[in-house]
Specification:
- This protein has about 170 residues and is an alpha/beta fold.
- It has a single domain, classed as Rossmann fold.
- The protein is about 35% helix and about 25% strand.
- It is built from 6 helices and 8 strands; from the N terminus they run E-H-E-E-E-H-H-E-H-E-E-H-E-H.
- Strands 1, 2, 3, 4, 5 and 6 form a 6-stranded mixed beta sheet that branches. A two-stranded antiparallel sheet has the order 7-8.
- Helix 1 links the parallel strand 1 and strand 2.
- Helix 1 crosses helix 6.
- The radius of gyration is 16 Å and the shape is globular.
Length: about 170
């Protein structure tokens, strides 16, 4: 099988997750192309057997690039096995890793027509030391409201890599 993983990332965690999915799928002797969403317009999606799109949340929203890409490629996404993974910090709470409890992913799918065959929601990485001043302030504020880490000297990876591997396993079945 020939897979493509297209990802939209802000700070790199969605890319890291996409690479882990790629590694897991390639262990089953499948071919996997990985591509940032900014470069995905040049891909011939019809050449792939399965299409995976991953995107992260920033300030409660997925990127407009992700919406545009899905809208522009809706016909092919609906005609082939296609999958989605979302990355956000509220998923650090295991209850928020299901669409019914994750307001960001639920609202995303209410705004688009695409219905992937399967989806996963993963917690991202809180990386205060690498945020600019505005992001650091705003993310700290959001974390305070949601009961998260507010120590701006910390970097915490919340991603459950076992869940990422299980999602990749589902994609090859």
């Amino acid at each position: 099988m020939n897979y493509v993983i297209i990802y939209a990332t802000v700070d790199g965690q969605s890319k890291k997750i996409a690479k882990k999915i790629q590694e897991n799928i390639q262990q089953t002797d499948n071919q996997v192309t990985i591509c940032p969403i900014e470069e995905a317009d040049h891909l011939e999606l019809s050449a792939f057997d399965k299409i995976i799109i991953g995107a992260s949340i920033r300030y409660g929203h997925f990127s407009k690039k992700c919406f545009r890409f899905i809208h522009a490629n809706l016909a092919i996404l609906q005609s082939k096995p296609s999958y989605f993974f979302g990355v956000n910090l509220i998923a650090r709470d295991k209850n928020k890793t299901v669409i019914e409890n994750n307001v960001y992913v639920r609202k995303f799918f209410e705004k688009i027509s695409w219905k992937p065959e399967d989806l996963a929601i993963f917690a991202g990485k809180l990386d205060y030391p690498n945020y600019g001043a505005v992001d650091k302030y705003l993310i700290r504020f959001i974390m305070k409201i949601t009961g998260g880490e507010t120590d701006t000297s910390k970097s915490i990876e919340y991603t459950d890599w076992e869940s990422v591997a299980k999602f990749a396993d589902r994609l090859v079945k």
